[in-house]
Each structure stands twice: as structure tokens, then as C-alpha cells.
Design brief:
single chain, 71 residues
Length: 71
Amino acid sequence: GSEMCIRDRLAEEEDMLFFRGVTHPLALKKRYKDLIKIYHPDNSCGDKWILQQINTEYDRLKNVITYQRKA
């Protein structure tokens, strides 16, 4: 069907960011929760690899945003 999992597209779009444009900690948290709902391995389009990418990016951004807001 037309429901193509994002992992297929990530192979050619390695620079794709799950959190593009997010600059506020609350927005980051909301986007993270929304992404987890979509890509959790228990879901039909879920994927462990994508979940790892989301978690890695979330942790990195969380540190950057927190640091920027304290500075």
C-alpha cells in the first residue's frame, strides 16, 4: 500500500532530522512523545532502528536546548 515506513526513505536521507525546527524544551518533549507513539516497535510502522535514532537525536538536542536556555 501507500503506507511506506520511513526507514526506507532514511537510507537516502541521512541528514533528516526528527526534531527539525524545535527550539523549546516543551516542544521537544511533545515531538518526542508523538514520535514514540508512531515508531514504537509494537506499532505497524514501528522500528527499533528508527527508535534508536530518535532517542539519540532527542538526547543530543535536549542537552543543547537546555544549555542554550541557561546561557
